[in-house]
Specification:
By secondary structure, this protein is an alpha+beta fold. It is built from two helices and two strands. The chain has a two-stranded antiparallel sheet.
Length: 75
């Protein structure tokens, strides 16, 4: 999914298991397209406009933030 407003091809997927049987706190991150068609953004809050992030539910965003703050690396 590209950024809609500027048609940026950058694409990253992040996921974690939703199964109750999974006891490990691993998450996966996959870079699908690392190319951008714009200059780097100067604020991390600017990334909230990414359409891919808007597809996550608040619980998923909170879990990813928690994993990130814990310095847990993606699988």
């Amino acid at each position: 999914m590209a950024l809609i407003k500027i048609n940026c091809p950058f694409l990253v997927y992040g996921s974690t298991s939703t199964s109750k049987k999974v006891t490990g706190k691993l998450w996966k991150m996959q870079l699908c397209c690392v190319n951008h068609n714009h200059k780097a953004l100067t604020s991390h809050t600017s990334h909230t406009s990414h359409a891919a992030q808007q597809l996550l539910i608040p619980a998923q965003i909170a879990e990813i933030q928690c994993l990130w703050k814990s310095n847990l690396r993606p699988a």
